[in-house]
Amino acid sequence: MLTLEQLQMKVPIPERNAINSGLNPPTVGEMVNLFGEPSPYKRTEGVPIDRMNRPLRDYMTTRNVGPFAMTGFVWFLWDWKRIFDEVRIIKPELIHFIRPFGCLNVRLQRGSTYKWSNHAFGMAADFGFNRTADERDGEFVERGMLELYRTGIPHKYDMFWAAEYKIEDSMHWDASTKLIQRYAHLMATKARFPF
Ligand SMILES: [Zn+2]
């Protein structure tokens, strides 16, 4: 079993274009087409949940996903709960030590005046093993995040790891294009909340 110190160590990023084979991150246009604008307030610092547009706002909730509680789009949370349940079986130390760094945040991408972050839809999540957020240095990732990726479980659930982005963001996981299609379908068919 890996110790917390080992999970916190920085290790080189794996080969970028092999990371998310078969998965793509959604564009802002695809997100808005499927779910609408998250809010009339377009800011980079984020606005409270009650300033979100319906119907998206009705799908935002707080749930225990295993290692901690998260607030975001209900089926995105459900998928992370199932991922963490599976990870716990093969790498319990990851579940024991992983920390949340945020899911829902109704804000634009840093430095943009119009492009929503996927966090604004509650369909992106940041995790880590250190007390502070991992630097986006383009070279190193936390060993714990690499281990989570290497289980293959987030990929199986169609989660896209942002270590592949041009400006590497290895704390960050997005719902892939496949996943957002499924989420849009669940909304359109008024499916019951999974938990
Ligand atoms: Zn993020």
Q: How does this model look, in words?
A:
With about 200 residues, the protein is of the alpha+beta class. The chain has one domain: 2-Layer Sandwich (Muramoyl-pentapeptide Carboxypeptidase, domain 2). It is built from seven helices and eight strands, in the order αβαββααβββααββα. The strands form three sheets. The protein has a four-stranded antiparallel sheet. A two-stranded antiparallel ribbon has the order 1-6. The protein is globular. Bound molecules: zinc ion. Zinc ion binds near residues 119, 124, 126 and 172.
In short:
This protein is of the alpha+beta class and 195 residues long. The chain is 31% helix and 15% strand.
Number of domains: 1
Our estimate of the beta-strand percent is 15-25%
CATH class designation = Alpha Beta
The number of helical segments is: 7
What gap, in angstroms, lies between the N and C termini?
31 Å
| Helix-residue proportion | 25-40%
Q: Can you list the strand order of the major beta sheet?
A: 4-5-8-7
Biggest sheet features = 4 strands, antiparallel
Shape label: globular
Query: What would you call the structural class?
Result: alpha+beta
**Based on DSSP secondary structure assignment, what is the total number of beta strands?**
8
CATH topology: Muramoyl-pentapeptide Carboxypeptidase, domain 2
Shape-level CATH architecture: 2-Layer Sandwich
Integer average pLDDT? 95
Overall radius of gyration: 16 Å
Low-confidence stretches: none
